Amino acid sequence: MRNKWGNRLVFAYLPVFILVIIVLLCIFFVITSELSKQQALKANEIYAENTMQYVDSKLRSVEQYIVQTFLDDQSVIDFYSVSPSSPNRYLNDRDVYKKLILMRESFSEIDSVYLYRNRDQIVLSNTSMMPLDQFANSQYLKALLAASADNRWSIGREYIDNNDITTPVVSLVKRMPLPLGTDGILVANIKINTLSTLVSNVSRSKLSYVHLLDTNGEYIIGDGDTFEGKDGVDRKDFTVMKSEYTGWTIRSGFVDGVAFRFLSNLNVFWLVIGVITVLAGAIWIIYASLQNYKPIQSLLDRLSSVPLQKPHILGQVKHDEFKIIDNLLDHLLEQFGKYRIENDENFNYRRRYLFEELLTGTLLRQEGVREKEYLQFGFQESYDQYIVAIIEIDKYASFTSTYNNKDQYLIKFIIDNVVQELNNSTGLLICPEWIEKHRLCIVCQLSDETTAADTFLDIMRKTVDWIGKNVEITITCGLGTQVSGIHRVSSSYEEALEALGYKPTFGTGSVIAFTDIDSKTGEEIFRSLPYIRELVHFYRLGEPEWQRHYSSLFAEIRIQLFSREQVANLMNYLLFHFYKEMSGLSAEYLECWREYAMNPINEWITTFDTVEELEAELHRILEDARKRLDELRAQRSQHELIDQMKTYIENEFNNSDFSLVMLSEKFKLTPNYLSRLFKEEFGEKFIDYLASLRIEQAKQLLVETSAPIQDIGERVGYTHTFSFIRVFKKLVGRTPGDYRKEFRQL
User: Within a 10 A sphere around the Cβ of 206, how many other Cβ atoms?
Assistant: First the structure.
């Protein structure tokens, strides 16, 4: 459609242009032909002249030879003057006969030569000697005798030899004796075939012809019938030339005279055709211009009827149609550009809105008839299987601080483009959309092939690997399960989100399928709670044992493959226990704990990406806070006393009679002061601290030995089994028997 107007203009003027060029070329070639014709005529004239000169030259040489031979020759003179009764007459005739033979042999052009003597009418030739009456050509001689006495070349005639063979010849006639004798005649005959050969030697052109005519206009060489066109060829002589020597005439022309005359007449014809063509071209251009202007006028009328926001632009160029069209189109394009920008914004908003609806399934559940609206994402109605993947940029806070906005958009574009490029060779239908600043959601419509879901999983793995190798960031992908029907895409999306929540334990730069975590029941988290309680307890007491429980806690987290939410809940539970245990310490200790432990841990719980990062950073924070707490303890005056009390308690806690009174008597302090000091240093009452030591020892014995529960209770300081079970359940959350069964199952 865009080239229709251009094609119309081309085909309107191009034929005229081509026709005019062709005519001009023809005129050029005709002019060239005319020049060639003139050159041909000149060449033909030169050709005829050369032919005439050549023939004259040959005939002159014959005549000159005869004159030189017989002019002063005594034997020839005697042939005409010696008396018939002279005794030397026969010898003299013999000498003349030999000269005639020599002349015949010397000039190949001479066919025959003979002398005629008037007084006795004897003819002496190069072959015989006889009376005139017996001579075969006597009629010709008699005609010569009766004619004028001019020495000349004869017309074409028939010569009869002694064998009565007739040969066409021309004859040179000389009065004898030379130069102007009256006693006889010399006749030298030259075959016409010999003349034809001479002419052929001059030119062998197949395009030109030469006719030689005698003084009577009879053809010596050539055919009068041919000249008149009786052989079907119409010829015209272009050169007619008469020899001053022989009186003969040469006529020359071209073999195909009709074609030559036709080409000659083309000059005027093509000149007329050229003038007519130019006039026709001018008329055609005027007609085509008027016809081609009609669409322009129609376009102007239509554009003028369009309501304009700037109507004054028409009055600025009222006499320039194309300028008017240009201004109108610029104005319309400006309006269209604004409309397109608004439409694109609305389309992008609508597309994002529909995509969010697709992921949440809100309107699909409400109306149930919106499936066709989602076909604009490129999906086909013939397929009904879908799967959702979510790609998340790892360590997004570091990503935004490292790259500016332009680089961030570029990297996101690369991720989007890599997914689509890898998908191009598979034939799957995908719709990627950035649903958050750091998350790209991909909805894939699967074909009927059973391996389509595996193909999509392979695309996600290749995408994660390619980004990790070629871009200085890593991404993690969460993959939902395959669902039937577009209304169930939301469930696959929720599964992908849930799978992505396990990135802390699976690690960054990985693909996490929902099927890998689908077997989790959520009860596994309770197995980690004892590690937290023990960790907090020993940390509060400043015992190195806390690090063993810390390592066990994170080992359990990695084994159970907790999600981010579960890990965050565990960390919050850890902080809760820390706060609960530390709140019993003095204000100085509690302030140190809040500043160097609790606040940094709260920040890391919301920003960590992997369990390894969390474990390393949390250990650093706890270790730093522990050192600061130890420094505070070392600065107190009772620090040495507290260490002695702690050592004594650890050695005597399994004594069933051990009590606060026994401890106060040992260190010579009142029970009330000792209880307050203990509370400040350890954050709990003496009785609770003693119970925790006994239960910790009991837990170890329950796991490592098969001793009865009653014996274990007595070994840790409880004389009554009931009291042991009650305290154990209070601190551990289960009875000693249940605790032993649980760990033996593990």
Answer: 7
pLDDT band at 615 (very low <50, low <70, confident <90, very high): confident
Residue 123 — left, alpha, or beta (φ > 0 → left; ψ -120 to 50 → alpha)? beta
pLDDT of residue 293: 66
We find that the CATH architecture of domain 640-746 is: Orthogonal Bundle (1.10)
Q: Give mean pLDDT, residues 206-223.
A: 74
Give CA 632 to chain center in angstroms. 76
* Block residue for tokens 């004892």: 530
Q: Which residue has the tokens 């959601």?
A: 441
- Sign of the Cα torsion 207, 212, 218, 223 reads negative
Q: Which H or E element spans position 213?
A: strand 208-213
* Sign of the CA dihedral with 488 first, then 491, 495, and 501 last: positive
Q: Is the pLDDT of residue 526 over 50?
A: yes
User: Average of pLDDT values for 296-306?
Assistant: 67
Where would I find the H helices in 636-685? 639-652, 660-667, 671-682
Q: How confident is the model at residue 150 (pLDDT cuts 50, 70, 90)?
A: low
Quote the DSSP letter at residue 23.
H
Residue 29 pLDDT? 67
Do 71-202 and 640-746 share a fold? no
Taking only the tens place, the pLDDT of each residue in 703-734 is 888 888 888 888 888 888 888 888 888 888 88
Question: Which amino acid is residue 292, in one-letter code?
Answer: N
Q: Between helices 671-682 and 639-652, what is the axis angle to 10°?
A: 100
Residues 6+ apart with CB under 8 A from 318: 324
Query: Of 98, 108, 54, nearest to 76 (Cα)?
Result: 98
Task: Enter the CATH code of domain 71-202.
Answer: 3.30.450.20
**Alpha-carbon gap, residue 334 to 327, rounded angstroms:** 10
Long-range contacts of 406-414 (CB under 8 A, 24+ apart): 411/471, 411/473, 412/440, 414/467, 414/471
Q: How many CB atoms lie within 10 A of CB 78?
A: 18
Instruction: Return the domain boundaries, the chain.
Output: 71-202, 361-517, 524-635, 640-746
**Which two structure tokens, joined as six digits, stand for 380?**
């086909």
pLDDT number for residue 265? 58
What number of CA atoms fall less than 13 Å from residue 405's CA on the CB side?
A: 0
Alpha helices in 471-610 (DSSP H): 489-500, 503-506, 514-517, 529-541, 545-560, 564-582, 587-593, 599-607
pLDDT of residue 13: 66
Q: Which CATH superfamily is domain 361-517 in?
A: Reverse transcriptase/Diguanylate cyclase domain (3.30.70.270)
